[in-house]
Queue: 2 jobs
Job 1
Amino acid sequence: MKKFSLFLAVLFFLFSGLVTAQASEVIVVVNGEEVYRDEFDKRVERLKYHVASIMPVDFDDPEGQEWLQVIESRVIEELIWETIFMQEVEILDLEVSSEEIETAFAEYRKDFETQEEFDLFLKEAGFTEEEYRELIHTNLLIEKLLDLQVEEFELTDEELRDHYDRNVDRYRQEEKVAARHLLYDEEEKAQEVLEEIEAGADFADYMDDGEELGYFGRGRMVPEFEEAAFAMEVGEIKGLVETNFGFHIIYVYDREEEKVPSFEDLKDQIEEELYDDHYEKQINLYFQKLYEESQVEFVENGI
């Protein structure tokens, strides 16, 4: 089971003690191996592209400069840890086949409907297709390295059952209703629509004035709305319900009662949770070992 994302989640915690105030330096030496500015700059630009694609940010203004410092620090961390990992890969003489790389590449490629969309992504992110394959190659090697650090881990049905019995409240599924609502500022308008629906008009015809809320449990809505919705039967339409937002007409179209899934329903989920815990503990120990053994020197006047 691949847990590459797990090691990324804990990497920065461990590395915070390894990177000193000199982390803004560009050229570092990791266990005798040099890391150069051109690779640093390339990755900074890629990460800036990623950040800008999910949130508005101007890297020239003060707030953007703060983001840039975070990006540069993260890139330094990634480069150093990647160098350490690849040194370990070389010591262990690990390899991945071209078939493994192409399979992973095809999986990433599936996120794009056309080759043109994929090419545009590569261009904007600062990758050539070959560089993207090399990134996949590196990730696969690191996954293999990390998987080797995890001891075999098997659980009996008795152990899984014991975990279920001790943690049964964690798996309790709360009562939920699924609803849509129409909302009006004016009571007169809301009353008019309600009467039309009660006379046979389709609730859906008025949804330009409403919202699909989906499933929600208690404590998610304002009290007046929640009290009304949870008191309703499936298929019932109720109004007018007044809240500080206005006047609501509520349609409840489904309900899920509170329940605790059986052990059999949760067995696979519990096994995966416990394996993930085991994996993370083993990888943390490995990180700590590498952290203690590694020498990272930031080159003076490296920028």
Job 2
Amino acid sequence: MNVTINNHSYNAEKGDRLLDIARTNQEHIGYFCGGNSICQTCYVKVLEGSELLSPLSDEEKALLSEKLIHEGTRMACLTTVEQEGTIRVISLVEEIKRAFETNPLELVGYSAKMGWESLVQFPETMRLQAQREFNVWELISDVIGGIGDAFQLVVKALTPLFSGNQESDAAVDAGTCNHVQLSSGCSCNTQKDTPQLTKHIAA
């Protein structure tokens, strides 16, 4: 079956956690605690297919406010795929990224809302965490793994920025261009003195 996370579709099997699907495919989602439901950065909003996912557990109910649950928020580390069908989710970090790109001012209200909902649920969250038992070494290993995965996502996000500049510089040096040709000509103007070498891709 396919699960769509942040508009990207991935193969999944029954029983897979949403978090593991995202991690396997280096999808933009938070998981600094390595999937141990501690950091609460793996919030996802279910846009379609909520009935195909595992029911809300007591852990999730302790970690998520009623408002967030009503909005379709789940914790990816505690939510598994249970049935075939169409599942679409968007992660909290992706929502923040899109808000920053389109209207940064929205981040003020968004941050205030999430902060308040976390505060509302804080007593229940602390009660849950106090009752849990952890294998310290496994937890440390998971946290290190989570941080490593986050670092890979950052590298993945930044690589196109630097590689794109390098490709453009190389094109200028060689007098060639691989950009899409506009009706008025190439948008990068790198033909220089050897137009016969210019390779355009027709729009």
